[in-house]
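User: Teach me something about this protein's shape.
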Amino acid sequence: MRQLMIQAPQGKGARVLDIAALYNPSNISRLEARRDEQGWELIILYVSNDQVGPLIEDLGVLDDLHITLQPTGVLPMSPPASRVPEQIRDVSPRSPMEVWLNGLQSIGSWKGFMGYALAAAIVVWVALFTNTIFLLVAAMLIAPFAGPAMNAALATAAGDKTLLGRSLLRYFVSLAFLILATAALSVILQQKTPTTTMVSISQLSSVAVLLPLIAGAAGALNLVQAENSSLVSGTAVGLLIAASLAPPAGVIGMAAALGRWDMAFNGAFTLLLQLLGINLAGSLVFRAYGVSPSGSRYQRGTSLVFYLSLAITTVCLALLLAYQFSSSPALQRSTRAQRAVEVVQQVIEENDAARLVETNMRFTRPSHLSQETLLGVIYVQRSEDTALSDEEISASLVEAIQQRLLAEGFDVAPVLDITVFEPPPTPEP
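Assistant: First, the predicted structure itself:
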């Protein structure tokens, strides 16, 4: 529940209580107060989370009210003791008005915001340069991208062009700052080649859009849920959003410094895909929970801005996905590599001369090559009843796998290294 402190001119307190009675308030207090040598009344009451907005809207018919909203949950209780569990069990979502006001309040100062962006840039660079995953997680924890991301989605749902503009400005300034900082670090510290983590992040899968959609929906759900009913902390949700944005932004800067424009392009495509997916999913969740341009006391925006923003986001996301699926394997390397593993398994299962031990397929594209190269490192064990030599087994498998990959539509140059193991000795009885 939420606490409301309402200052009303003398004589209007009764009207305030009449309006508040429609929303089942708890533990009401009515006190006399003085302000500017005039008589005032101070009314303190508690209402459920979802009733905050409607109550404030109805109180808007009274002039000269001063309302203070306590933005944290409280547990008002009253006798008898047997009813206390029912009284404090309030798991209703936050009022749309409270969600919108919290979004306005979370803008914060530019100095602190850019300080966190710089810290995140340094940690991202170190993590990518040293292939240290736990440092990449640490960078996601301090990256300040969750706030602007959720505020942009909130502004889209509310049709608030002012909040949307401020959120997008912080969005792109912080991302550009991270990209420039990582590029500068690569130049200053004389990085020469991309790391394996950079290569891995730059390789998209065909389901890459699912991460920003989930991140946007989870972020919006976390903001609309009451504190005591939210099963996931805000830090965890912020980490999920930062995981969508910080790594590809770091890859863009480092790859640009190395002149690897193919990797930089993939990182930019990933980043744009994440931005649009987070905004689309987040704004739809906010809209489903009642955030809209309407509001008599606090006008949030216009329906035109909402529909226009949502349409632009949807169309741009659809165009990106269409381009991704038409650019194979450039923007689907991760998925195509996994599909290649399945092809290898099928070919070896059909071959009686060997059995599969392990396979690793990945795309590699050194800067001096213009063709996509699929590198495969495969380990097999020769069958006990085969008369073929190791070289013959390896050659036959290479030919069969290459033909199957080409037949499956892999427009690549498959380079395969097959190692043949001898079968283990039969144990003596």
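Now, about its shape. The chain has 15 helices and seven strands. The beta strands are 2-9, 26-35, 38-47, 66-70, 354-364, 373-382, 413-421. If you'd like, I can walk through any region in more detail.
User: That's plenty for now, thanks!
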